[in-house]
Design a protein that fits this description.
Strand content: 35-45%
Shape: globular
Radius of gyration: 17 Å
Helix content: 25-40%
Largest sheet: 5 strands, antiparallel
Order of helices and strands: EHEHEEEEEH
Number of helices: 3
Distance between the termini: 37 Å
Strand order of the largest sheet: 2-4-5-6-3
Length: 161
C-alpha cells in the first residue's frame, strides 16, 4: 500500500447533455438524475484512488444551488478529499454551461462516503490522500468536521431503529 496518494490521482470529470427525458415540467433536470450522475462519478473517483471496487456508504450532503435546463451541458468533477482506514470522502461539483451564452453556473455540490471492498464485499484498506492545491487542502482540513457530523447523524438513526 503506498504511503500517500495525490488527490489528482482520483480526479474524475464527466460531461453530460441535459436532454428533455431527463427533465421535469419546468424543463430543468430531475434532482434524481443528478444524484445518479453524482453517485457514478464519486464511485469512479474512489475506485481510482483505492484501486479496488467500492460501494456507496452514504451521500452525506447534496446542495442543489441552481437548475440546469434542457440544452445545458453538465460538467461533473469529483475527487477524494479525505480517507479513513477503508473509507473515502469524495467531493463532487456539478456545473452547468449555457451553450448559447457560454455562462458556467454551479448547480450542485455534494459529499459522499465510499468504502473500498474486495470481491467478497469485505472492506479493505485505502491509502491516505495528499492534497496539493489550495482547494484540496481546504476540503482536507474541513473533512474532520464533516466526519463528526456524519457520526452524529448515524447515532440519531441508531437510537430510532
Amino acid at each position: 500500500m503506498p504511503d500517500y496518494s495525490a488527490v489528482n490521482r482520483s480526479r474524475s470529470i464527466q460531461t453530460r447533455l441535459v436532454l428533455p427525458p431527463d427533465t421535469n415540467h419546468l424543463e430543468s433536470i430531475f434532482g434524481g438524475k443528478v444524484l445518479a450522475y453524482i453517485d457514478e462519478i464519486a464511485a469512479i473517483s474512489a475506485m481510482k484512488h483505492a484501486n479496488s471496487i467500492v460501494v456507496t456508504a452514504s451521500i452525506d450532503s447534496v446542495d442543489f444551488v441552481s437548475a440546469a435546463k434542457v440544452g445545458n451541458i453538465l460538467e461533473l468533477e469529483a475527487f477524494v478529499t479525505a480517507t479513513g482506514r477503508t473509507s473515502m470522502e469524495v467531493y463532487v461539483k456539478v456545473q452547468s454551461i449555457d451553450v448559447t451564452t457560454g455562462t458556467t453556473t454551479l448547480t450542485t455540490e455534494s459529499f459522499l462516503t465510499m468504502v473500498a471492498v474486495n470481491e467478497k464485499g469485505t472492506p479493505i484498506p485505502v491509502p491516505p490522500v495528499a492534497p496539493e492545491t489550495e482547494e484540496e487542502q481546504r476540503l482536507f482540513d474541513t473533512a474532520p468536521a464533516r466526519k463528526e457530523h456524519r457520526k452524529k447523524r448515524a447515532s440519531v438513526y441508531k437510537n430510532h431503529v
